[in-house]
Design goal:
The chain is α/β, with parallel strands linked by helices. It has a single domain (8-278), classed as 3-Layer(aba) Sandwich (Rossmann fold). Helix content is 35%, strand content 13%. The chain has a seven-stranded mixed sheet, covered by helices on one side. Helix 2 (78-90) links the parallel strand 2 and strand 3 (106-109). The two termini are 25 Å apart. The relative contact order is 0.18.
């Protein structure tokens, strides 16, 4: 992976470079297919879906009155599918596949305890999230029992305030403060070595304009934050003022966007998944 993209140093350079080159060759051929969604309609998790392999689980949630941004489905399903594929290609992690060797990302509802089977859950556009008492209770239990949440793609101070008001129903600020992750944290080195945390705009906000990465007036600085447990394990990874989901979803839509944003996006995304499964 080119080191000029968001400060990513390569591990096993020849192998990774060859895989990335292959990815570049196939993305244009898959554009039309991906624009329709690769693997059909929504798949809500049931117990039989869990076979011991990695399963991408996306949380379906209700919006809050006066929230900011889109809803749970932004970047779905392509981001979920593409990140699952790249995880299977760039690591030795077994990823749950169907009979056609396609990944099987799942949708989960926090009121259904089946989501406790997910090693990893993803939320997007959390500036517009509402959690009721049952959802907050279940999410708290999941995180305290070793689960891992990644909240991504919300921009500016107002969206942060909305997110904070909801996640504090789950994990109160006293025992669970937000922490800014230093670049020396293991999540930045679990697979690829990342030397700078990237700000990734949506492809629409970027529009092909060099240097155009902040989507709001007050979102110029991207944040990698977390809530950790008493042992220092990340329970909730929070990527604010950046949109990793679009870097996965839009990998085949624009060559320059892929080079500038999908490459560093995948480096961090795979690091996050590897961390979630090893800590």
């Amino acid at each position: 992976m080119p080191s000029r993209s968001a400060g990513v140093r390569r591990a096993w350079p020849a192998r990774v470079a060859a895989i990335v080159a292959a990815m570049l060759l196939v993305t244009s051929a898959l554009d039309a297919q991906r624009s329709r969604g690769r693997f059909g309609g929504p798949r809500y998790a049931v117990l039989d879906d869990f076979d011991g392999s990695f399963q991408f689980c996306r949380v379906v949630f209700n919006g809050v009155q006066g929230g900011d941004g889109g809803d749970w489905s932004v970047d779905w399903p392509r981001a979920d599918e593409n990140l699952s594929i790249r995880l299977s290609e760039l690591t030795k992690t077994p990823v749950s596949m169907d009979e056609r060797d396609n990944p099987k990302p799942l949708l989960v509802n926090l009121k259904d305890p089946v989501f406790f089977r997910c090693p990893f859950i993803m939320m997007t556009e959390v500036g517009n999230i509402f959690l009721d008492e049952t959802e907050a209770k279940h999410l708290r239990e999941y995180l305290q029992k070793g689960g891992f949440l990644w909240a991504d793609d919300f921009w500016g101070e107002y969206a942060w305030q909305v997110w904070e008001s909801q996640i504090r129903k789950v994990l109160p600020s006293g025992p669970y403060p937000f922490v800014d992750l230093p670049i020396e944290h293991p999540i930045f080195n679990s697979m690829f070595t990342i030397t700078r945390f990237p700000q990734i705009p949506s492809i629409g906000a970027w529009g092909g304009r060099a240097g155009n990465t902040s989507e709001r007036i007050d979102s110029k600085v991207p944040h990698a934050r977390a809530i950790v447990d008493e042992r220092g394990r990340i329970m909730a990874l929070i990527t604010h003022n950046t949109d990793f989901g679009d870097s996965f979803e839009r990998e085949g839509d624009n060559h320059q966007y892929f080079i500038e944003f999908s490459v560093p996006g995948y480096a961090f995304g795979i690091n996050a998944l590897v961390y979630s499964m090893t800590h």
